[in-house]
Amino acid sequence: MEIYGTLGPACARADTLARMLELGMTGLRLNLSHVALTGAEDWLEELEKAAAMTGVRPGLVIDMQGPELRIGALAGPVTLAEGDTVRLGGDGVPVPEAALPALAPGREVLLDDGKLLLRVTRSLPDGAEAAVVRGGTLLSRKSLALPGADIRPPAVTEADRANLRAARDRGVTAVMQPFVRGREDLEEVRAALGEAGCGKLRLLAKIESMAGVEKLPQLLPDADEIVIARGDLGNAMPLWELPAVQKRIAAACRAAGRPFMVVTQMLASMERSPVPTRAEVSDIFNAVLDGASSVMVTGETAAGRYPVETMRYLVNTVRAAERYMSVCAEKASPV
Q1: Residues 62, 172 contacting (CB under 8 angstroms)
Q2: Which listed residue (206, 215, 230, 258) is catalytic?
Q3: DSSP one-letter code for 35
Q4: Which residue in the list 6, 264, 298, 310 is annotated as catalytic?
Q5: What gap in Å lies between CA 225 and CA 214, rounded to an integer?
């Protein structure tokens, strides 16, 4: 089973990465919504050093920008308190131009995988004003979701194409495409990979919207692996419905013989705590029992305080689940 961390400032040192590899990490994700591939040279050099130190050659998955909506760069962290009014667009929080027409009064705006919730109160010529319903601290380049809005940015951005051109010489083994909406998105990415001379890279399709869930049957033959990306997927429905959708996707992948990965908030509490919650450990264990071929943590290793301990708990929980399945299989086998 593949076990991925996410490369970021919290872990991008050779000694830290070496310890994570020694624990059993098999690969790393690099989120290109926050940095260009050519801008991550220092991190990649540290990864090369760690690979040489341990004799382990990890996979490197680049997570493209794709059609995902994100806010732009902020001067610094912004604290949004419940009841505050915040401006979106113009000289306020920068939002993608494609999102502006959808900022009509009454529209809900989810930020940072739904951690923050706003509701638009007034349209403006260059954006909108919104009331803070669920507050928190907002950082640059965090995700933005507008439930119910029909927004269709291109599947492959110019930044994505530049990153693909750089991928061949930087040890990239796979490409993760966000917000896959149908077969056409995968075909567009495959074409871009071919143009960049990277046609042999594995293509992972992230399911992050109901459009992706509904089009899953047509994605299964064309994706090398399906990614159940629960952050934005959880924004697309009442959160209590997410587990059933995750189970449906997993079952469809098993029936089609297609590998799948489970990601997002697997050990979220470990961004601040050296020990996970019992619920998080159970979540990982059950993902393995459901047949996941890969699991991945994101902010826990990229920006959290305990990247090595995070990997220790992730690997050990995966191994415990594998042992459990092995014992169950032996008991079910005829003597």
Answers
A1: yes
A2: 206
A3: S
A4: 264
A5: 17
The residue with tokens 């341990």 is 54
30 and 62 in contact (C-beta within 8 Å)? yes
Give per-residue pLDDT as tens, 149-208.
878 788 999 999 999 999 988 999 999 999 999 999 999 999 999 999 999 999 999 999
Active-site residue flag, 278: no
All residue ranges of the chain with pLDDT < 70 are 334-335
**Cα(327)–Cα(329) distance, rounded to whole angstroms?**
5
- DSSP labels for 59-94? EEEEE--TT--B----SS-EEE-TT-EEEEETTSB-
Sign of the Cα torsion 100, 105, 106, 109 reads positive
Specify the pLDDT at position 335: 52
331 catalytic? Reply is no
Active site residue 29: yes
Walk across the sheet containing 127-134 and list its strands: 85-89, 127-134, 116-124, 108-111, 144-145
Question: Catalytic: which of 70, 107, 181, 215?
Answer: 70
Contact indicator for 112, 127 with CB cutoff of 8 Å: no
Look at residues 235, 179, 272, 33 and name the one whose alpha carbon lies nearest to residue 245: 235
Type of residue found at 148: G
Give the start-end residues of each E strand in 125-251.
Answer: 127-134, 136-138, 144-145, 174-177, 202-207, 225-229
Domains along the chain with CATH numbers: 2-63+152-332 (3.20.20.60), 78-145 (2.40.33.10)
Give pLDDT, residue 149: 84
- Active-site position among 6, 19, 29, 142: 29
Q: Is 85 a catalytic residue?
A: no
CA-wise closest residue to 25 among 45, 7, 13: 7
pLDDT for residue 332: 83
Residues 40 and 61: their CA atoms lie apart, in Å, by: 13
